[in-house]
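## Example pair
The file below holds two records. Each record gives the amino-acid sequence first, followed by its C-alpha cell line.
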Amino acid sequence: MNLANLLHTSASRYPDAPALAIGTEVLATYSDHSDCSSRLAGALLSLPGIEAGDRVAIAMKNCPEYSEIIFAAWHAGLSIVPINFRLHPREFSYILSHSGAKVCFVSDDIAQGIEEISGDISHLGEVITAGSSRYREMMAHNTIDQAEVEADDLAWLFYTSGTTGRPKGAMLTHANLRAMNAAYFASVDEIGHSDCIIHAAPYSHGSGLYLLPHVKRGACQVIPVSGGFNPGEVFNLLKHWEGAMLFMAPTMVTRLINAPDMETADTTNLKTIVYGGAPMYTEDCVKALKLLGPKLVQIYGQGEAPMSITALSRGLHSGSMTSSYYKRLASVGLAQHGVEVRVADAKDKDVPTGEIGEVLVRGPVVMRGYWNNANASEQTLRGGWLHTGDMGAIDESGFLTLKDRSKDMIISGGSNIYPREIEEVLLHHEDVVECSVIGRKHPEWGEEVVAFIVAKESAKVTETELNTLCLEHIARYKRPRVYRFIDALPKNNNGKVLKTKLRDIIES
C-alpha cells in the first residue's frame, strides 16, 4: 500500500522516460527519480531521532526536489506536511510545532526565516535547503528497501487554509490518496505515458496531489522556471510539452484567458485544465471554453476529502447555450467514483431534491480525522459522514450546486441569502472584473448585503446600474444595500477570497 511504489513501478516500466523537468529541460528520468528518492529515504532515516511514522515538512516553492522529497519520505515510512511557502513566519511556526515535524525542507528564499524560528521548536531536528550542499550530501546515501506501511498509516498531513481561526491538520492516509488516484482516472481524466503535468499551482495544494496519477502513468512533471504561475510562461511551455495538464484555481484560469498573449497563443498541446478550490463564475467558464475548447474539468474537494468529492467532466462542459446548460456549468458536477454525496439539514436529515442544506460526503477519500484534535474530528465526521461546512443543493439528475460556506450565508430579515447567487448576477455587468458579497450587521434586519466590486480600469460602474441588474435577475430583498469599489479583492495563496478581510474593511 506504500504510495512510493507508484514511482518505483513506473521506473521499472519506463526507466528512460522523462520524470522531472524545469522549463523545457529534462532533469531526471524515472530511473533517476526512483534512485534519488530511495537514497534520500535512507538519509532521512539516518537522521537523529527520526523513526517510522514521523512527519517531514516541506516549505518550498515549486521545484524538482519537491517530488524527490515526497517519495523519499513515503519510501522511508514517513509522512509529508506540505506548507505554503508564502505563509507568515508565525504560521510556519504553528504548523511545524503542531505537526511535530522532525525535519523541514525549505527553498533558499525562505531558509533564513525558517531557521530563525526553528530554535523555538524542540522536536525540529534540522532545516535543510533543497539543492544545497547538505541536500546533495544526503543524495549520496545508500539506497534502502521500501518501508512496509498499513493502508491507514498517515501519508499527507494537510493543514486547512485557516481563513478563520487556527488551521487544522487533515490526516490523509495511503489508502485515502490511493482512492483519490483511482477517482481521478474514473471521474476526471485519463493520462497517457507521453503526457505531462505543468505545476503552475503550488505543490503544497492540489497540484502536488495530482503528481500521483501522473507518476502512475509515467508522465513527466514540469516545473516552470519561475516556480509559479505566469500566463506568458505557461503559453511558452505549451509550445514544447505535449499532452499538458494544469491544475488551476479559477482565478488562475481567468488570468490565463484574459492575458494579452491569449489572442495569439497556440494551445494545441494543452490537453486538460482541471480547476477547483473555489467556484468559477459561469461567464468566465463560458469564455474559457470559447477560447480553449473542450479542455476544462471541474473538481470539488476539500483538504478533508482531497480533490475527490464531485467532478464536472470534459463532456459535461459541452453543450448548447441553453438555460439547462448554464445551470450545469454553475454546478460542481456529479459525485466522483466511490464517493457518496448528500445534502442535509441541521439535524443531518436529507433535504428534498433542489433544496439547500449542508453538503455531506462519505467514501474512501475522506480523511482519518484531524491531527491531535479529537473534538473537531468527532464533530466533522459525525455519523460516518464528512460535514463539509459547504451549503449546496442536488438536483434531480444528481448535480451538486454549491451556494456558499455555511458561515458565509447571510440571514437578513429572517431570509437566507447566498452570496454566490448575487455574485453571479453582478458579474453579468461587462465592466465588473471581480466581486465578492458579504453580510454586515444591521440593527433592524440582522444583516445587510454588502458587495465589493473590482471594475475594469477606467470603467465607470454605478450603483444604479448594478441595482438595476440585480433587480432583473434576483429578488429585491437579495440585492446589495451597500457597494464598495476596490482595486483588488484580498486573497490567500490558493486564490480564495478572504472574506474575513472584507469584513474588517467594511467594519473599519
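Second record, same layout:
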Amino acid sequence: MLAYRDDKFLGIGLTYDDVLLTPELTDVVPSAVNTNTNLTRNLRLQIPLLSAAMDTVTEARMAIAMARQGGIGIIHRNLSIAEQADQVRQVKRSESGMITDPVTVRPDATIDQLDALCGKYKVSGLPVLDENEKLVGIITNRDLRFLPVEEWSTITVAQAMTPMPLITGEVGIAREEAKKLLAQHRVEKLPLIDQDGRLAGLITVKDFVKDEQYPHASKDDSGRLLVGAAVGFWGDSMSRAEALAQAGVDVLVVDTANGGAKLAREMISHLKSDSGFSGIDIIGGNIATRDGAQALVDAGADAVKVGVGPGSICTTRVVAGIGVPQITAIDEAAKACAPAGVPIIADGGLRHSGDIAKAIVAGASTVMLGSLFAGCDEAPGDLVFQGGKQYKSYRGMGAVAAMSSRGRKSYSKDRYFQADVVSDEKLVPEGIEGQVPYAGTVGDIVYQLVGGLHQSMFYVGAPTIEELQANGHLIQITAAGLRESHPHDVIITAQAPNYRVTD
C-alpha cells in the first residue's frame, strides 16, 4: 500500500517573470556603479556574466571575447580531451603579459606549415628555434608579404625569416621597458632569451594595445585572460581535468544535469583534494534546492551553479517533470551557500537585462547565459538566412544532436547520466535543437546587459553588487502585473537593442 505524506507540496516556485525589484531611495548614478563580483571563493570578475558551456555558445573565440569584456567563458566539453585543452590554450595565449610557452616553428618547416600554425593559434608570426631550442630568427607577415602563395609549399621558414641578431629582451624585463623597446625599434614581437640564447618567453605589441582597448578584462596574475572549462565525472574525466590544468585553465566546472548525484560530488571532492589542481577553483552544478547546494558546499565546491531545467532549449522539466523555478531555486541555494561564503552562479532562464539584478537580489553573484550569447558572432556555428532574417543555431546539451554520435563521439551523454546508452536510438533527450536571431558582437550584447544592470543598481540605490544583493527587495506579481510590465496596447514600430519584439 502506498504511503501518504502531507508534506509533498513544498510551496510556490517563482521565476524571473513572477517578481520585480522594488525601487528604493537612491543617490547612486548608473555610470558610477561597480559591478565587480565573486565568481568563486577566490576569483572575481569585473562583470557578473559567464557564457554557458554549450557547443553552440562557448569555444575559444567566445571565451576570449567574454574575458576581454570582464566576464568569463566556460569551454564546453562536447570535444575530445585534446580539442578542449587546445581551446583553453588558445585563450591563454591570446593575450599575455608574457607568453611563457610561445608557439614556435623550425627553420625547415615550409611556409604552408607556418601558415597553418598561425591560423590555428591566430597569430601573425612565430619565433624560429633550431634543434637545440635556441632562437635563430623570427618570421612574421611582413616576411611573407612578397612571397608568391603558390610557392609556399616549397619555400622554407629559414629562407624567408628575419635571422638573428634580433631585437630581444632579457628574462624578467619590466613591462614598461619592453613597451619602450617595441616602440623604439618598431617591431611587433619581443623575444625574451636566457643567457644561453634559448627562448624563454615572448612579449607582443598586441598585448599593450589590448590592455588599452579592454582595460577591464578578466586576467590572471600573469596577465593572461581567464578561462574556465567543463568536465564530467565519468570514464576519462580525470584525464580531461588534468589536460585542462596543464593547458592553464583557471576554473573547472563539474558540469552535470544533477549536481546532487554521488558521482558528481565525489568528482568535486577528488579535484579539491588533488594537489595537481591547486590554484584551480572548482565549480559544482547544477542543483536547485537547499540540500543540493549544501551537498556541493560539503564536497568542497568553490562556487555552486543553480538551474535545473530553466534554459530555453531544455526539456528536463517536461521530460522528467523535474526542476525548481529559478528565483526560488537561487533563494533556496543561498540558504546553504551564503553562510559558507560560497558564491552562486544562476544558470539559465534569463531573457532580459533586468533578470540579472533579480538573480543577484535572490542570492546569486553571477549569471550564466546561453541563448543571449548563442546569436553572437563569436559563438560557434554559421549564420542561417530564413525569411529574410539572420539566425544562428542553438541547442541544448541534452538534445539528440548533442548526445548522439552521428559520425563522431559525443562527450555530452554523461551530463545527463546516459553515458552507458550504446545506441543513439535509445537516448532519452532532455533538450531541443533550434535557432536564435543573429545578435551582433558579444561586446554589443554585454554593453546592453551590463547597462541594464547599472540601471537596476541605480533604482535600488546600490553602488556595488554586494549592496544590491543585500539591500534589494523582490515583490511577487500576477499575470496582469507581467502584462503591465511589458509594452502593451501599442504596435511596436522600432526595435530596441535590449528588447526583442518577438518576446
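Notes on the second record: Residues 442-460 form the longest helix (19 residues). DSSP finds 18 helices and 21 strands in the chain.
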